[in-house]
Amino acid sequence: MRRRQFITFLGGAAAVWPLAAHGQQPSMPVIGFLNVTSPEANAGRMRAFRQGLKDARYVESENVAIEYRWADNQIDRLPALAADLVRRNVAVIVATTASPPALAAKAATTTIPIVFLVGEDPVRLGLVDNLARPGGNLTGINFFNAEVVAKRLELLHALVPKAVRFAMLVNPENVPIAARTLREVPEAARAIGLQLRILNASTKDEIEAAFVTLAGDRIEALFVAPDPFFISQRDQFATLTARYRIPVAYSTREDVEAGGLMSYGTDIREAYRQVGVFTGRILKGAKPADMPVLQSTKFEFLINAQTAKALGIEVPNSIQLLVDEVIE
Asked: Whole-angstrom Cα distance, residue 248 to residue 242?
């Protein structure tokens, strides 16, 4: 081979080899993350989700990317956000916290795997055929809400045993959660002899107005439905609780950390971690149809000691024995 031909051959090879090597590099998988609230309302939960991914050996920006879609408490935006993730051809869609994101994702695709986190029965919602064999392209975590409302109400009553006039706040815009709460809580209230007033709120101003009504009607305690919008407004609830001096029961840790009196419900951060693990398994090739839906069984009862003191509530010894954690 002549020298000029040899140099030309090397130059051509140099141009081809990097392209070939680049073509052999696997592209980074992309997770589509769909949530009805906002990133600010989910900071602790997202840390748990990323920990679950890490447990499955995936780290954001290192070997996996995440496309976030937040509806900012506007449920009607979810179908368009889900459709956008489908157009981007993400590897898996994660739909968390409530049924609307999961239902929107299900309506948007029958092929892209979906991992959901819902508090309602996934079979009744039509997300899966059954829990053991989901079928289709969905699987995920089912955390219990309806099953613990009676216990949450009983614990609130135990903290204020002389109270009889209770109220319940629901978000009528979130039909599945509102309907289930309106079915379960009044029944539980009647069982322990409580009077129950139903109030609606789907905006910040309506939450404020609800507390004005509570004060005017001399309501002695409030039960807040486990709604994502209410959880995102936990700082507002804490401020109003202090202003109107009313004991309030919630479903999540975040509410108590923000200044709420008490919560009882699923350890939601652990549920988010499990969602991360499920997502990692799917990225590794597992099929949703073959992955049984996991039901969370870890519950936690928390009390904010400072809020209890400010409200003049002395926590009975019988309740102290049940508390998983006291937030100071």
From this structure: 10
Q: CB-based contacts of 257: which residues, under 8 Å, 6+ apart?
A: 304, 327
Q: Are residues 140 and 92 located together in one domain of the fold?
A: yes
Query: 100: which 2 tokens?
Result: 């609307």
Q: Is residue 24 part of a domain?
A: no
Q: Give CA–CA dist 264/259, Å, rounded.
A: 15
Q: What is the mean pLDDT of the chain?
A: 90
222 contacts 166 by C-beta, under 8 angstroms: yes
The three-class DSSP label of residue 325 is strand
The Cα 38–Cα 231 span in angstroms is 11
| CB contact at 8 A, 246 and 211 | yes
Q: Is the whole-model pTM more than 0.90? A: no
pLDDT tens, residue by residue, 194-251: 999 999 999 999 999 999 999 999 999 999 998 989 999 999 999 999 999 999 999 9
The pLDDT, as a whole number, for residue 146 is: 60
Residue 25's pLDDT is 45
- Return the structure tokens found at 191: 């069982």
pLDDT (0 to 100) of residue 47: 97
284, 304: one domain: no
Decide if 326 contacts 301 (C-beta within 8 A). Answer: no
CATH at 41: 3.40.50.2300
Model confidence at 259: pLDDT above 80: yes
- Cα separation of the two ends of the chain: 82
Is residue 211 assigned to a domain?
yes
Rounded average pLDDT over 65-73? 96
75 secondary structure, DSSP code: G
> In terms of residue numbers, what domain contains 242?
146-265+300-327
- CA 101/CA 157 separation, integer angstroms: 33
